[in-house]
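Consider the following assembly input.
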Amino acid sequence: MIAAALESPARIDTPQIDVRGVSKRYTSRDGSIVQALSPVDLAVRAREFVCIVGPSGCGKSTLLKMMAGTLQSSTGEILLAGQPISGPSEQVGMVFQAPALLPWRTVEANALLPLELQGMDVRAHRDRAEKLFDLVGLSDFRAKYPGELSGGMQQRVGLVRALIHDPALLLMDEPFGALDAMTRETMNLELLRIWRDARKTAVLVTHSIPEAVFLADRVVVMSARPGRIAEVIDIDIPRPRRLEMMNSDTFGGFVSRIRRHFGAIGGLDA
Amino acid sequence: MRRFEFPKLPSAPDLLPRMVLLAALLAIWQLCVALFDIPALLLPPPSAILSALFADLTSPRLLWHAGITLWEVLGGFLLGGGAGLALGCVLGRYDRLWRLTYPYIVAFETVPKVAIAPLIVVWFGFGMNSKIVTSALICFFPVVANTLSGLRTTPPELIEMMTAFKASPGQVFRKARLPHALPYVFAGLEIGIVMAVIGAIVGEFVGAQAGLGFMILQRQFAMDIAGVFSILVILSAFGILLNTLIRRIQRTVVFWLPSPGQG
């Protein structure tokens, strides 16, 4: 009891994710060792929205996969709510670059998949599913198959799927990279609304600097060869954010400050 | 899941030219036989084949033989296709087992199954069993190979997604890899059903007391060439019927893919 009481104030300050000296090395096919990610440290607070931005090959997706527990780090450790990650966790919901929906399942069955895989009661979560589908405007499409949906709608299904088991942490790997610019902006707005309502911690990896600035409380700027964190920038643009804010000087200032990191290596490819 | 659809007849605009083409070819054939005085022993005229076919289709004896062959084909197909699907799944699920056994599987695959048919008659006798086994053996490998390649080509992003949501290897197999492999399995079954017909006929050629293959040999000995052609027509009808059946089932099961060659 005493130990628990002593622990509780500390727990409030425990970051949702604590990345400690994490690096990744691959052995390539010809036997040479590739350093995909130099040791990095990063702490993400509960309910914070962090965007990781960087050029291809900077290890940003690698870092995200290690947070998701689908990839093992070569050194260091990642703590999820104070516990070291040893594999995929039900506290994590992930959105992928390709929607990665199962084409033979209806939209609803796709969204309920995490519950099914984790042996949770699917029926007990019907209400929750309904609410989430409402939130992303897909209520009328629950009985459709993914092949009948547009790219933006498929990504919305991916978002519902990531949130269905009520994880504390939402990880997104370039979720809107394949969408057209207009759909992308709409999805960004929706994402912010869902994130605020659902009170999740969010980490999003992106190629797009404006997208990162628009969404994030903090932007983690990474650079390539070897992948490392170049700068972490606090984005103090007030919330709720609106698309017009992208035209403000403050916004432009953040964008050009981040862009400067990539000037030397030819900029980002998006 | 979509409802099972019965095969549609080709639509009228397709049907008419096709029938005209068939009639024209048969007419040319008939004409050539008459014009060049080809003996019926070498190439009977279509009219003779048609009358033989009509006699066959109304003869209970021949229909009994056809029934035997159909039974052998279906038995062989179910046995070989089922075993092929099962082995493909086991090898696709357990990679170590695959690595252990695949040299032997490849070695066995390269043996012409037709060449084993005499052995199979020795082992399983002159009755239907030996034909079912030959038929099963010959349609087994296309199904194994297709099942395996279907399981192996599951998009890595689907597997990664399943893993990220804590799926066990068994769940990844059942809920992602196997459904993904189904179109490939059906492609294998489509080849398999045609192979099963070949297997049954070869089995009957090697040694049998009944069946359409056995009848072909009998009529050949009796120089009834029009009769041989008549059986060939029946066999080809079998092939078309069974193949169409598989395609229809495929369209129902693999409903999420646009079916190739519709109409």
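The CA atoms of residues 206 and 216 of chain B lie 12 Å apart. Ask yourself how this observation constrains the way the partners meet.
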